[in-house]
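User: I'm new to structure prediction. If I give you an amino acid sequence, what do you actually give back? Let's try with this one:
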Amino acid sequence: MAKLKCAWFDFTCCEGCQVELTNYGEPFLTLMEFIEPVEFREIMTEKTTEKIDIAFIEGSFSRESDRKRLEEIRSRANIVIAYGSCAVTGGINALKNHQNMNDYKEIVYGKDKDMPHLDSQLAKPISAAIKVDFEIPGCPIDKDEFLRIVSQVIHGSTPTLPKYPVCVECKLRETVCRYDEGDYCLGVIAKAGCNSPCPAHGIPCEACRGFCDEPNQEALVELLKERGPYGKRWAEEKSRMFTANLRKDAK
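Assistant: Good question. You get back a string of structure tokens that encode the predicted 3D arrangement of the chain. For your 251 residues, that looks like this:
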């Protein structure tokens, strides 16, 4: 079996998902028996303009000037996989979509806010610009899920993601609920698939994988207001941390 040519590309993000892959160790090396990286900024300097079998795209679509590059990647790739929350939903970058554009440009760039190379727009998922074949959510991605989905794609299977919330995984792990500890948690509406490591280690779920199917957003805000420590405004803003583009008030 010929190895599949794969390339990794990044847009508006911290590139943390690429770094996560470089920390994967032996399982990623095993995957290398089936794929050939031809472009991957975190581990190699080479770049390619040739056709590729799989394009992995990290980061959100936040500049109209990036559309052409995305379309060029799409035209070269047989399969496009958006990976990481920024690429799948717009991620934490989309919080700015709920702010005045001039305000955040002033805060971030100051006197340079109108320079062309600093142009910015609403942060959107990669699917807002090009057709995406598969998605791998998370901030960062779950390494085991990445390996599973890529393996399924390589062998011609159709990957699927869980539809139920993180709470189900916490129950399966017999993890004490953060609310029972007097804490908050977004696991009640968060898409499962990560095996809920954060609550298991005493950290609230922030829904970095986006929403589960049919999330009750209003009930979550009420729960956070009731059980969280900081009141109504905090509850409303906390509930959109990684889901700003998914909420009913999304722009």
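You can read the tokens as a compact description of the fold. Here is one thing that stands out. The two ends are 46 Å apart (CA to CA).
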